[in-house]
Amino acid sequence: MAPPADAEVVTSRRPRARRGVSLRDTGPSIALVVVFAVFAALSPGFRTLSNVQNIMDAAAVLAVVTCGVTFVLMMGSIDLSTPGIMGASAITVALLVANNRNDNDLGMLGVAVAVLLAAALGCLSGLALVALKVPSFMTTLGVSAVGLGVATLLFAGVQPNITDEMLEGWAVERTLGLSHLTWIAVACVLVGWSVQRWTRLGRYAYAIGGAEEVLGLSGVKVAPFKVGVFTMAGAFYGLAGVMVTSQLGAGLVQAGKGYDFSAITAAVVGGTLLSGGRGGVLHSAVGVLLVTVLTNGLVQVGVSPYWQGGVQGLIVVAAVAAAVIPQRRRNQVTK
């Protein structure tokens, strides 16, 4: 019996993904090793075990956010909802676990509710995208505003400080030298990679970014998979908001400030294209480490933190330029 048309589309894309290992795939990993070696030579404090642990811990929240952003970028979309969704999740979990504002003490159930709220906001982004047919950066920017509005209403002018030992322990307690937040981030990367590698949602995210029209003509209903990707991304953002609350010991409306740009930067630096159809969770994880190592190294050698944003901006421009040069040479057009 002949395979279904949608299977033919997916399987036809696999050979191209496995055809050799290009410099674009290995480049970020090589750059990570080079950058680490340079800073290790410049600063004795950089190459200590405690600093390596600090780098891993500092990368944890960004890695979780980048897992969600990566799937959206693979579809060729842009997600700017991260700050609002993380803010809503952070305030929600702070009010549901043991805190100074009320008598709630839901523990892990409170964490689950916060992540589900974030997933619902992500779903709203996906539904708005497929229903309104407007660019993703506009719909997600609107959902970010909705999330910030929800967070502000819940905040009610009084900061909720958490007293839940379980959630506080995520940032404080360590296993094999790394905080529990870092191990949560590792688990999220593995889950993201498994979804990308073994599920139809992950394979179709690639296909949508590479050839959405062909996928649609093959009989696949693209809209549900777009909504599914944004929903999953929202869940990652929600968990990241919970992690920030654990770090700060309080819920803040601005818990996700700046993570949208940082996550997109890390994903692109790692080799995930803004145009979609290339990259993946492991690529983006390398990008997260590269950005975090660079930030830590600049501090270790005495560069002002005020320059770090500019450096990140230059890196993402260079990474995007390096990624599109082969395409532009073929097409000879500038979009």
UniProtKB/TrEMBL annotation:
<keyword id="KW-1133">Transmembrane helix</keyword>
<dbReference type="GO" id="GO:0022857">
    <property type="term" value="F:transmembrane transporter activity"/>
</dbReference>
<feature type="transmembrane region" description="Helical">
    <location>
        <begin position="178"/>
        <end position="195"/>
    </location>
</feature>
<feature type="transmembrane region" description="Helical">
    <location>
        <begin position="55"/>
        <end position="73"/>
    </location>
</feature>
<feature type="transmembrane region" description="Helical">
    <location>
        <begin position="305"/>
        <end position="325"/>
    </location>
</feature>
<dbReference type="GO" id="GO:0005886">
    <property type="term" value="C:plasma membrane"/>
</dbReference>
<feature type="transmembrane region" description="Helical">
    <location>
        <begin position="21"/>
        <end position="43"/>
    </location>
</feature>
<feature type="transmembrane region" description="Helical">
    <location>
        <begin position="139"/>
        <end position="158"/>
    </location>
</feature>
<keyword id="KW-0472">Membrane</keyword>
<feature type="transmembrane region" description="Helical">
    <location>
        <begin position="80"/>
        <end position="98"/>
    </location>
</feature>
<keyword id="KW-1003">Cell membrane</keyword>
<feature type="transmembrane region" description="Helical">
    <location>
        <begin position="258"/>
        <end position="274"/>
    </location>
</feature>
<feature type="transmembrane region" description="Helical">
    <location>
        <begin position="110"/>
        <end position="132"/>
    </location>
</feature>
<dbReference type="InterPro" id="IPR001851">
    <property type="entry name" value="ABC_transp_permease"/>
</dbReference>
<keyword id="KW-0812">Transmembrane</keyword>
<protein>
    <submittedName>
        <fullName>Ribose transport system permease protein RbsC</fullName>
    </submittedName>
</protein>
<dbReference type="Pfam" id="PF02653">
    <property type="entry name" value="BPD_transp_2"/>
</dbReference>
<feature type="transmembrane region" description="Helical">
    <location>
        <begin position="227"/>
        <end position="246"/>
    </location>
</feature>
<feature type="region of interest" description="Disordered">
    <location>
        <begin position="1"/>
        <end position="20"/>
    </location>
</feature>
<feature type="transmembrane region" description="Helical">
    <location>
        <begin position="281"/>
        <end position="299"/>
    </location>
</feature>
